[in-house]
């Protein structure tokens, strides 16, 4: 759907609200409740044109500043990730049942506290080890606090005072 000169991908879903996303490549995607009309979708997107343009500009700037790709030797990425998991389990007093690796489009990692399982995005192998270590710590922190609230970030800051700089490397 073309809205104000922008090609917008629309996904109709069984949801209550409309959600807008600008992907890393600058494309615009919106998920909408099944019964919303095209006019309502267009009005929603038009009301957020300023944000869309700002997000696209930020993404362009980030691509220009993107650090060089980090390259791990064969098997080094998973070995290092598991080393970081063991190290931080001991330091934080938590334990992980299972660590898995997969390519993810929207997350660097995820944690299921109930099963004590963490998943790490294989795309992290393109970044320095400090970034991988930060994501491992971030996911393990969910075993102590499930939500992204003040307590969660206090836990991260307690163990890794430079976490914001490491996170910034992932969004650069």
Which secondary structure elements does this structure contain, and how are they paired or packed?
Layout: E1 2-3, E2 6-13, E3 19-22, E4 28-33, H1 38-46, H2 49-65, H3 76-92, E5 98-102, E6 109-112, E7 117-121, H4 129-141, H5 150-159, H6 163-171
Parallel strand pairs: 2-4, 5-7
Antiparallel strand pairs: 1-2, 3-4, 6-7
- Which segments are poorly predicted (pLDDT under 50) over 5 or more consecutive residues? none
Strand order of the largest sheet: 1-2-4-3
Q: What order do the SSEs take from the amino end to the carboxyl end, as H and E? A: EEEEHHHEEEHHH
Total strands: 7
Query: What would you give as the CATH superfamily of the largest domain?
Result: Metalloproteases ("zincins"), catalytic domain
Fraction of residues in β-strands:
15-25%
Q: Provide the CATH architecture of the largest domain.
A: 2-Layer Sandwich
Terminal residue distance:
30 Å
Q: Supply the number of helical segments.
A: 6
Quaternary status of these chains?
Answer: single chain
Q: Specify the biggest β-sheet.
A: 4 strands, mixed
Briefly note the structural class of the backbone.
Answer: alpha/beta
Q: Domains counted in the coordinates: how many? A: 2
* CATH fold naming of the largest domain: Zincin-like
Mean pLDDT: 91
Helix content: 40-55%
Can you tell me the CATH class of the largest domain?
A: Alpha Beta
What characteristic shape results from the CA principal axes? elongated
């Amino acid at each position: 759907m073309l809205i104000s000169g922008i090609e917008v991908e629309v996904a109709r879903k069984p949801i209550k609200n409309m959600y807008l996303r600008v992907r890393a490549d600058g494309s615009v995607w919106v998920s909408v409740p099944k019964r919303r009309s095209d006019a309502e979708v267009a009005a929603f997107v038009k009301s957020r044109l300023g944000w869309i343009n700002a997000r696209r500009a930020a993404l362009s700037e980030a691509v220009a500043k993107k650090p060089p790709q980090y390259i791990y030797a064969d098997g080094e990425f998973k070995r290092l990730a598991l080393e970081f998991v063991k190290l931080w389990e001991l330091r934080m007093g938590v334990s992980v049942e299972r660590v898995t690796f997969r390519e993810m489009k929207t997350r660097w990692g995820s944690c299921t506290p109930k099963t004590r399982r963490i998943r790490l995005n294989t795309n992290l192998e393109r970044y320095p080890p400090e970034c991988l270590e930060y994501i491992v710590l971030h996911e393990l922190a969910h075993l102590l606090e499930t939500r992204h609230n003040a307590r969660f970030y206090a836990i991260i800051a307690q163990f890794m005072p430079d976490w914001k700089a490491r996170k910034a490397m992932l969004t650069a």
